Amino acid sequence: MSTVYTQDERARLAPETARAVFRSGTVEPTSGWSHGYAQANMISVPEDWAYDVLLFAQRNRKPCPVLDVTDAGASGTVLATGADLRTDLPKYRVWEGGELVDEPTDVLGHWRKDLVTFLIGCSFTFEFALTTAGIPLRHVEQGRNVSMYVTNRQCRPARRLHGPMVVSMRHVPAHLVETATRVSGLMPEVHGAPVHVGAPIKLGIQDLAKPDFGDPVRPLRGDVPVFWACGVTPQAALMASRPPFAITHAPGHMFVTDRPDSEYRLGAQ
Amino acid sequence: MSTVYTQDERARLAPETARAVFRSGTVEPTSGWSHGYAQANMISVPEDWAYDVLLFAQRNRKPCPVLDVTDAGASGTVLATGADLRTDLPKYRVWEGGELVDEPTDVLGHWRKDLVTFLIGCSFTFEFALTTAGIPLRHVEQGRNVSMYVTNRQCRPARRLHGPMVVSMRHVPAHLVETATRVSGLMPEVHGAPVHVGAPIKLGIQDLAKPDFGDPVRPLRGDVPVFWACGVTPQAALMASRPPFAITHAPGHMFVTDRPDSEYRLGAQ
């Protein structure tokens, strides 16, 4: 399945089709794929680290809203019927002692029976709502991954896990910042409202053109940088806290779920 | 501090004063105390059961919204400066192997260094908002604890923990049910909108006059029973799953936090 999809075709793909495309080896950031469906960050750790991760997420809900936690060894999730978490993401990262050791397109060869997988809300989930509200997505327009940065804000530690908050950044036309804040604020389980608008240095970010994860994205005249808490935060915690083993998604290469994004809008529960 | 407070005086007590009153041995349900401040259910388990409890809560967010988790052995919480979780609730329950073995007014003599404490959102938190919206609270009017019932709805299990959902019930005048639903629905971290309105038998409840926890409360003419998910659900899981040891609050005898209830209203984060 090496078909190249246009932007419009990607947006309209059913989630299970998108997952099949990635399972077949297509490697692309998932922003703009399967509009209207929630996407998720993934982190798998040995079971004896699972409580640390879940507690870290509970204590840092803004960057780490938990959508599902699997039983140890399970490769499926309640978020997507028939999905296989070991193959259905476009790209993974494998970590040993906090070091990135591999970046494969599936993790069948790395899987372990003691792995507990956390699926964490992703801001790509509210991008469809942003688009619908008339907000342009510069990274999608430019065919790039969203820009992500490690900030100077420390998360509340949980047992052996500690680390800084990571943010995603979108350039938003100044007159639409209020709309972007309101629309994303209605979806707190996928990071909600921005954590900062305007001055990267306030988050300790020296140069917007040099993201720590993802690609640099060019602003247009009149754009303002808007920063949202990001589900790559647990990866920064892995790097800082060095558990013996972990698997994550590669930043921007998310798990596309079957859950309509409307389920994560305020008042839906 | 054996002062008897009127209903109005209780409502106006600062949270730290309410906690001091309970610390001094006053034993009363906390509904109607310290209006405008969040109240919390409490469950403390040995550290090797902590992941089970946190995962159970994550998988059953409606009855078990987690407001804070302490480090093992800690008796304080970020929810209330200077509070002592071992003394500041009006009444506790001590559990061994799923059996209730004691119901003391403090747990200093039962405390263990390996206990992890979970503070879970409580529907008493939205009662001030209900009152403000003109909804009478029959249990407060009648000077009784709220009625709580074990339902026929099973929670999603988590490792060694399983059990049925518990609900609290309030009699609401029929023409105000919509208002009660809307007002509580705005506060999902303290159980949010009702899980059922009208027919107790739909939840497997045979007789409203015989609650499983709390007191029976008389309806007035035109009242309809409205059921909310309840933070006593983890106690039902203790009874069903029989961990070796646990401490909880006594139903209706909650931890009064320093957090304004407005923090748990939608859009506050």
TrEMBL record, chains A, B:
<dbReference type="Pfam" id="PF07286">
    <property type="entry name" value="D-Glu_cyclase"/>
</dbReference>
<dbReference type="InterPro" id="IPR016938">
    <property type="entry name" value="UPF0317"/>
</dbReference>
<dbReference type="InterPro" id="IPR038021">
    <property type="entry name" value="Putative_hydro-lyase"/>
</dbReference>
<dbReference type="GO" id="GO:0016829">
    <property type="term" value="F:lyase activity"/>
</dbReference>
<protein>
    <recommendedName>
        <fullName>Putative hydro-lyase SAMN04489726_3610</fullName>
        <ecNumber>4.2.1.-</ecNumber>
    </recommendedName>
</protein>
<dbReference type="InterPro" id="IPR009906">
    <property type="entry name" value="D-Glu_cyclase"/>
</dbReference>
<keyword id="KW-0456">Lyase</keyword>
<comment type="similarity">
    <text>Belongs to the D-glutamate cyclase family.</text>
</comment>
